[in-house]
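Fresh eyes needed here. Kindly weigh in on this sequence plus C-alpha cells:
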Amino acid sequence: MALLEVNDLSIQFGNVKAVQHVSFSVDAGIVYSVIGPNGAGKTTLFNLITGIYTPTSGTIALDGKEIQGCTPNVLAERGIARTFQNLQVWMNMSAIENVMVGAHLRLDRSLFKAMLRLPELRRRDKQLREDSAELMRFVGLDDYIHSRADSMPYGALKRLEIARALAMKPRIIFLDEPAAGLNPKETQNVGGLVRKIAESGVTVVLVEHDMKMVMNLSDRILVLDYGKRLAEGTGAEVRQSPEVIAAYLGGYA
C-alpha cells in the first residue's frame, strides 16, 4: 500500500476548476515531484492535501485512512508537514527558536506545568533545544545556531523553514519551491538536502520549477496542466512524453 493515495481529486472556486480529477500515489521513502506551468494547480494540490482547502470531490488517504477535510493541525499530528512558496519565518525570534516552534506538537502544553516550570518541563525544553540544534546541523545551518533569524541570508532562511518542518517529525513533507530565488550553488545544496531527507526515511513531495534539480532528484514525477494530470512516471518517461514536451518542458527535453 502506498503511503499517500490521491483519488479523483477536484476543487472548484466559482467557475474556476483549479484541480480536476487528479489521481496519483506516493510510496514511502521517495522523492515525488509535481511540475507544470504557472497556474497548473500545483500549490492548490498541496493546499488540498495539507488541509488548507477542502476538496469539492475525491479522496486523499494516508496509510489507507481518508484525511480529506482534516485541519492542518490534525494532519500534522498524523505526520504531514510542509513549507510554503513565500518565507514563513518569525524574524523577531532566533533561528533555533523558529525550529523549536515546529516541535510544538511534542510539547506538554499544560499551562499549570508551564507556570510552575516543573523540572520535567525544564528538561524537556533543554532536550528540545538540543534536538533543534541537531536539525539545524542536518540542514547545513551549523553557523546560524546562535543567530537571530533577521540576520540570516535568504538561502539560509529557506533551509531554516525545512528544519522547522522536520522538527514536527513528519512521515511525509511537502516542499513548495524550496529553491525559488536561490543561486545555482544554493539550489545544488537544497537538492542535496532533499535527497538527504528522503534517505533519512521521510517521504518528500516536491513542487519545483528548476527542471535540472527535479530530474536529478525525483523518483517519480507528476505533470499538471490547467489543473489536470498530464502525465506521471519517471524522469525519463516524462521527458519522452510529447504532451509534456509541448505543454511544459520545451527545449529541456
